[in-house]
Amino acid sequence: MSGFVTSRRRPRGSAKNAEPLYVRIDPQMNAVADQVAQRLGVSKSDFIEELLRHVELDPDGVPSWWTRPLPEREETLPLTG
């Protein structure tokens, strides 16, 4: 594949405090993540981590580009006895 570099692994021990992230995504989106990470010369984990660092949130903590409806916020009702 012309223009692609081999992915670099994280330095030994750098993921010591890292937590696993298990997700099920569309195979085509997984391929996109693989291709981008490969093109950048980083692991898919490094790419996803950097991607998440750059998510811009609105004042409510919602990504600025999110267009799907949000779940209704549940109101806590006082208990009566």
Layout: helices, strands, pairs:
Elements: H1 27-40, H2 44-53
Helix pairs in contact: 1-2
Descriptive account of the structure:
This protein has 81 residues and is mostly helical. The chain has a domain at 23-63. It is built from two helices and no strands. It has helices spanning 27-40, 44-53. The longest helix has 14 residues, at 27-40. It is elongated. It starts with 26 loop residues before the first helix and ends in a 28-residue tail after the last helix.
Question: Helix-strand pattern, N to C?
Answer: HH
Uncertain runs are none
Rounded to an integer in angstroms, the radius of gyration calculated over CA atoms is: 19 Å
Largest sheet: none
If helices are DSSP runs of H or I spanning 4 or more residues, what is the number of helices? 2
Structural class: mainly alpha
- First CA to last CA: what distance? 70 Å
Residue share in β-strands:
under 5%
Count every beta strand, where a strand is a DSSP E run of 2 or more residues: 0
Overall helicity: 25-40%
Average the pLDDT over all residues and give the rounded result.
84
Shape: elongated
List keywords for this structure.
30% helix; mainly alpha; 0% strand; 81 residues
At a glance:
This protein is mainly α and about 80 residues long.
